[in-house]
Write a sequence for this structure.
């Protein structure tokens, strides 16, 4: 029987997930579909609580339903528990609704693919921003064994709120001390929306940063953000944000369709073309 999965959220029209999963379904010749299911906020709790009635084997969850979806799951993985938010759901053999948060795994998968061995060279990571994506990335860095994860955010209290949950490895730091912190960072990750198309660039003087420190930006439109360009120009290795989007989709596809898919160049080019972003 055809296995059906979907992106659920409100709205869902903008999502690139159907393109990504559609590519893998075709590549592996599987009898499956990946659809868009708009779930109106007023019906979200009922939809996830009664997920088995949807006829789907599982789904991705996007804004604004990640928290309500997590609350409706019978079992959550460590990441979803730590974040109180789930982006990947599936029914297990006993009909229980299982929830995972794969954004952090997507971030790690991207670095592993594009900067192999990075973790062995990373004692101190600096995460800029304290929104939903930052949370997933701090969880990922802590779970991978990075010794110190410093979180700087425009609104310091937001960084403090969640850095405390990952203490003592994670610690909130003031934006005013970034020059000093950059001087002892092995990895810098921008998770703010600065640098995204239509947003001002992230204004950061990289001169104190060691030239072998890895710089990553999770913004992927544009693909080369002003931060990545500045880092590249001074000789730092860089990793763009598109791979995180692609790798976060891998665990869901494997759960629903039974094949672990590859993030390859053809997929990357397909999504770049759809985004209208130059490679
Ligand atoms: P979010 O929860 O809205 O958080 C936004 C963050 O950006 C906050 O830390 C906010 O600081 C900061 N910020 C916004 N405007 C700022 C400004 N003018 N100056 C300084 N800081 C500013 O968003 P999110 O979901 O974490 O997403 C953040 C970015 O990551 C977006 O561009 C999104 O597209 C991208 N993203 C990429 C992937 C991927 O797969 N590559 C996945 C998720 C997200 P305050 O707390 O002070 O407001």
């Amino acid at each position: 029987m055809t296995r059906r999965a979907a992106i659920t959220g409100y709205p869902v029209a903008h999502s690139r997930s159907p393109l990504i999963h559609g590519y893998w379904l075709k590549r592996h010749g599987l009898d499956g579909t990946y659809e868009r299911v708009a779930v109106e906020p007023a019906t979200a709790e009922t939809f996830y609580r009664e997920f088995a009635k949807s006829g789907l084997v599982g789904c991705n969850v996007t804004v604004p339903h990640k928290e309500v979806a997590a609350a409706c799951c019978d079992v959550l993985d460590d990441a979803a528990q730590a974040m109180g938010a789930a982006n990947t759901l599936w029914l297990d053999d006993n009909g229980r609704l299982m929830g995972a948060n794969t954004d952090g795994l997507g971030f790690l998968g991207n670095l592993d693919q594009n900067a192999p061995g990075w973790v062995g060279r990373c004692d101190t990571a600096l995460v800029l921003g304290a929104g939903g994506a930052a949370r997933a990335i701090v969880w990922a860095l802590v779970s991978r064994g990075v010794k110190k994860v410093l979180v700087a955010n425009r609104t310091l209290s937001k960084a403090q709120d969640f850095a405390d949950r990952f203490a003592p490895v994670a610690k909130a730091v003031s934006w005013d001390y970034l020059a000093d912190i950059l001087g002892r960072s092995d990895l810098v990750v921008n998770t703010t929306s600065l640098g995204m198309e239509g947003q001002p660039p992230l204004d950061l003087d990289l001169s104190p940063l060691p030239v072998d420190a890895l710089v990553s930006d999770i913004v992927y439109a544009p693909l080369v953000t002003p931060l990545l360009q500045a880092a590249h120009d001074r000789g730092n290795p860089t990793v763009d944000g598109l791979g995180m989007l692609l790798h976060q989709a891998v665990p869901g596809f494997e759960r629903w369709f039974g094949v672990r898919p590859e993030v390859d160049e053809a997929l990357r080019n397909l999504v770049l073309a759809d985004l209208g972003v130059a490679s």
